[in-house]
Amino acid sequence: MQPLDGIRGVAVLLVFLYHSAGELLGGFLLQSGVDLFFVLSGFLITTILLRTRERSDYFRLFYLRRSVRIFPLYYLVFGVTLVLASIAISLGIAAEVGYPNAQNLIDNQLWGWLYQVNNLIAFKGPVAFPAMSHLWSLSVEEQFYLVWPLVVLLVPPRRLFAVCIGIAIGSFVFRSIGYVTISRDFAYHFTLCRLDGLTLGAAGAVVLGDPALRAKFDRWIRWAGRYWWVAAVLLIMPEVVALFPGFTVLSLMFLGIVLSAHEGVLSPRPTRWLGSRFLLELGTYSYAIYVFQFPIAKAVLGITPSNILLIDSIFHVVVIGVASYALARLSWVLWERPWLSLKRRFSY
Q1: Are 103 and 89 a contacting pair, CB within 8 Å?
Q2: I need a labelling partner for 38 at 20 to 30 A (CA). Which of 155, 170, 247, 286 fits?
Q3: From CA 106, how far away is CA 97, in angstroms rounded?
């Protein structure tokens, strides 16, 4: 599974660069690292669900394992952030530390506790949830996890592929209409607008689990493994294009890379760098890096030592990167790993 861990590292690296050096790299669709996470999550989760759907403890195993992975760090960081926001407001220094709208986080905290950050931002904008607005993508995933096990259990595997594709197409259409009729924030964050990556990933799991579908899509999987660099070219597309078919097209390419990596048909060059220690390290700590890097970036980006974009961007990347990685390592040792050890009590 090393290549998939490396792909996870690529995803968190794209998200990190978007938040820390977005002004310098604004010509690239780096936020699509989120879509790579969606595709990978949909693929891995559906693979597990298909493998365990006949077990009597199907739901219990899935939700307990997801809970010990996601909840402890999420609620710890969210709770600490709320405390820090309250302190900053009471001391009158919220603006000085980069969060002039910190009160909004306090007022809207229920959305965070219930994993509804994305839907709040869809209608109120990121300012409604300062410091923690990046949790919108995790909210989408958690909402997907809440419903998807039931879908996988009730829908026969042969029909599940069509369901996945149908939801992906519906999500793309809904996003396009929402962008035109409502707003960019709605199209970018609302749950029904962002299900294409997750369900395309799920469709990939169905393909690999069905010999007939595997044979049918074998040529495409091998093509994606050979021409993986097309994904990098697609990152050049403007966001306005992405909000129509772009995110769906990019997710399809991401899926091809994920499937080819999983099947071992990815071309030698990316296989080597996906297995690099750097990307594997990022992949291991990707969840904590994802959680920590955005609030750190918001606080650090206001510091511009030289007022020269390139130099300041390098400064931001180094400071935010080191701080995020250090906190992620600390979190892994002191908090996440002890919780993850509970998975032994409910193993597959």
Answers
A1: yes
A2: 155
A3: 16
Count: domains in the chain: 1
The whole-angstrom separation of Cα 163 and Cα 145 is 16
Range of the domain at 283: 2-346
Alpha-carbon span 227 to 29, nearest angstrom: 19
Burial of 343 (0-12, 13-18, 19+ CB in 10 A): middle
Q: What is the pTM of this model?
A: 0.97
How deeply is 9 buried, as exposed, middle or buried, from its count of CB atoms within 10 A (0-12, 13-18, 19+)? Answer: buried
Which residue in 211, 308, 324, 204 sits closest to 257, CA to CA? 204
Residues 6+ apart with CB under 8 A from 219: none
The overall longest dimension of the chain from CA atoms, in Å, is 64
Instruction: State the amino acid at position 218 in one-letter form.
Output: D
Cβ distance 253 to 230 under 8 Å? Answer: yes
Q: How far is CA 285 from CA 63, 202, 320, 326, in A?
A: 21, 23, 15, 10
Give the helix/strand (H/E) hosting 281.
Answer: helix 277-284
Q: What digits encode the pLDDT tens for the residues 160-201? A: 999 999 999 999 999 999 999 999 999 999 999 999 999 999
C-alpha closest to that of 309 among 319, 299, 298, 301:
301
Which of 15, 2, 99, 1 has its CA nearest to residue 287? 15
Residues sharing a CB contact under 8 Å with residue 242, sequence separation 6 or more, in sequence order: 29, 32, 250
Task: Indicate the SS3 state at residue 222.
Answer: helix
Residue written as tokens 């600490």?
Answer: 80
As given in the structure block, the two tokens for residue 110 are 């229920």
The token duo for 7 is 């792909």
